[in-house]
Amino acid sequence: MFLVPISLAYRKACVVGQGRLAAIYAAGQTSYLGFMDSDLTHRDAKSLLEWQIELGATEAICEAPINRFELEARPAKRSVPQTAENSERADAKSTVPTHAQDPVLVARSAAAAAQNLNSLQAAMAAFDLCDLKRGARQLVFADGIPDARVMIIGEAPGRDEDIQGRPFVGRAGQLLDKMLAAIGLDRAADTAANGVYITNVLPWRPPQNRDPEPGEIAMLLPFLQRHVALVQPEILVLMGNISCQAVLGRKGITRLRGEWAQGFDLPVMPMFHPAYLLRNPQAKRDAWADLLAIQARLNTATG
Ligand code: URA
Fold this sequence. Notes:
Elements: H1 6-16, H2 18-26, H3 42-55, H4 68-73, H5 84-90, H6 103-113, H7 117-126, H8 132-135, E1 143-144, E2 150-154, H9 159-164, H10 171-182, E3 197-200, H11 214-231, E4 235-239, H12 240-248, H13 253-256, E5 261-263, E6 266-271, H14 274-279, H15 284-302
Parallel strand pairs: 2-3, 2-4, 4-6
Antiparallel strand pairs: 1-3, 5-6
Helix pairs in contact: 6-7, 6-11
Bound molecules: uracil (URA).
């Protein structure tokens, strides 16, 4: 199944015919119950809804219709991402500190001010400079045992995580739990010794689960760094390319996986992402070897 935003259905509707579009609009858009507020019959509302589904819409993303043409007619709010450098040039006389315009600098000072995980979560929830926040249902901060020896860093929330507000709760998350259980680790463990702490590079779901953009990773990196510094795990496990890019500054998981590296001043084990393992079960053999390497390192450090 693939996700197509309602706005795309809306655009296609314009091509198909104004009459039909107007009817959908009148139906209160994506809500099947919307027909109650319009002149549409139950049958018409149902077939219009089915028609949107045929166009590829699989999720209602907001309750009220958005006219994208009107939005586009307005001047873009921030077409060029502002940096300390260009905002300084553009407005040398501004009394607002330039730093307030630069998402990376704003994130850095917000993250540095957080003295514990609760205040870090609050600082991230208050961070308004990442557009992903507007499309997501909620912030997905972390799950598991904050005193755990192992901290896992995934990519970004998907649909299930966006709904539940916890990382790795969908199919990939279920596989991750099984993988961890195989080496005696559990996000719901009673003790820190066999606990695990889980977060993502991005706390908000990217639209249609697209890959995070470099600018998004850069502006959220200070929060991730602070997150790791507050948790102080012994080992970081990086799931897939995006977290390798964020923590190691390198991609190429096939080459990186299975070899201990150093990132954020900690030993780091890059692994195939569980979502990749679901699509490529033959790679589970490599993942098993990586899990054993993690287990061996934990045992050596204790023993
Ligand atoms: N994939 C991730 O990388 N993180 C999640 O939380 C869920 C799926």
